[in-house]
Specification:
By secondary structure, the chain is mainly α. It has 6 helices and no strands. Helix 3 packs antiparallel against helix 4, helix 3 runs antiparallel to helix 6 and helix 4 runs antiparallel to helix 5. The longest helix has 24 residues. 14% of the residues are buried.
Length: 140
């Protein structure tokens, strides 16, 4: 009886895979490689120099935004677009774990008031620190 149930389950799994490949034109190998890459540490992934360069570019953008903190009005839209671009890059190229860490400031101490300028400054500082951590981890 158990053997029969196992065969039925295996047949259903195979039918779903065939459906995905033929009907929806899904490339299962590319999908599996992408999913497997999400769980690899950054040091084991390919194109490490490219990742470091891209992360460094994001840090430079943050530095430019930090120089604009005295503008009136604050460049909040530019800041939010930068955060979205970095999040997208991290998720697509390094995995969702890096995206989550990029937005988490646990263990960091910041000073300032509760003004919009201070909030934006802390956001840029915390996210820049995380990007530096990612580059450091990559070089190990």
């Amino acid at each position: 009886m158990t053997l029969l149930i196992s065969r039925i389950v295996l047949t259903l799994v195979l039918l779903v895979m065939i459906y995905l490949v033929w009907v929806n034109n899904v490339d299962l190998l590319k999908w599996a490689e992408k999913k497997a890459k999400e769980y690899l540490p950054i040091s084991e992934q390919s194109d490490q120099g490219e990742h470091s360069e891209k992360l460094s570019g994001f840090i430079k953008e943050a530095q430019l935004l930090r120089k604009r903190l005295n503008e009136n009005p604050l460049p909040i839209k530019d800041h939010n677009e930068w955060v979205e671009r970095v999040n997208k890059y991290l998720k697509e190229n390094l995995g969702s774990a890096y995206e989550v860490r990029f937005n988490d400031f646990s263990g960091m101490t910041f000073y300032g008031d509760n003004s919009e300028k201070s909030k934006m400054s802390r956001s840029l500082e915390g996210r820049s620190r995380r990007l530096h951590e990612f580059i450091s981890e990559k070089s190990r």
